[in-house]
Amino acid sequence: MSKPVKVHSVAEGPEDGPVVVFGGSLGSDHRMWEPQVKPLVDKGFRVVRYDTRGHGASPVPPGPYALEDLGGDVLALLDEYGAERAHFVGLSLGGMTGMWLGAHAPDRIESLVLCCTSAKLGPPRMWAERAETVREHGTGAVAEAGVGRWLTAGYAAAHPDRAAYLREMIAAVPAEGYAASCRAIEEMDLVGDLPKIAARTLVIAGSEDPATPVEHAEVIAGGIADARLEVVEGAAHLGNFEKPEPFTALILDHLEQVR
What we know:
GO molecular function: 3-oxoadipate enol-lactonase activity
Radius of gyration: 16 Å
CATH topology: Rossmann fold
CATH architecture: 3-Layer(aba) Sandwich
Strand content: 15-25%
InterPro entries: AB_hydrolase_1, AB_hydrolase_fold, AB_hydrolase_sf, PcaD/CatD
Strand order of the largest sheet: 1-3-2-4-5-6-7
CATH superfamily: Alpha/Beta hydrolase fold, catalytic domain
Organism: Amycolatopsis orientalis
Number of helices: 11
Number of domains: 1
Largest sheet: 7 strands, mixed
Order of helices and strands: EEHEHEHEHHHHHEHEHH
Distance between the termini: 32 Å
Shape: globular
Pfam family, one: Abhydrolase_1
Protein name: 3-oxoadipate enol-lactonase
């Protein structure tokens, strides 16, 4: 594990509320979770969103990154906020980070919500090639394809401004940070770690997710004892953004049950 970096974060809600940390997708920053903030804050939760290392306003240490690096950054973030334990909600790369935390830092994780993610996402060559593309041509070169996975075609057509917002989000990610994070996914295999996760876990999949189809969620839910699986109809990969109401309702229901 490399030395943790102090990632950029934004905290909202009552300082004495239960802490809920949100980790985002490859190519995103903390703004992807905007739809979830107010509903959770209104219920008394302390919402902490962060930019993964190499993304947004966080530092960009030289790569490659491993999941244990990303998990270590979250543990340092919890220390920074004085949070002994926290609920962790992660989507895609954030979900992978959450699984690593659940398996390797169980004493710090109150519960997990794993959205549109995978415990093993091949083929490795695809991730190596994407990292190469980004290093050569910048993140703008993968922004259009990224939004094509994040949103259904119908939503993108109906909300061109929202699709443009997300394209700009991807294109703003530093090339080295994106490419170094691709390596974390390329080398990841968390399937054997799933039975070690004891935290109460909710797994959410999008029925139209081309990046991490429902079968990936089934593997995760099958590997973690007593995990609950929910599929949100009509959601692609950035399901929390495209279908905020059902995602937020599921997250809140899970947090209230644990509370």
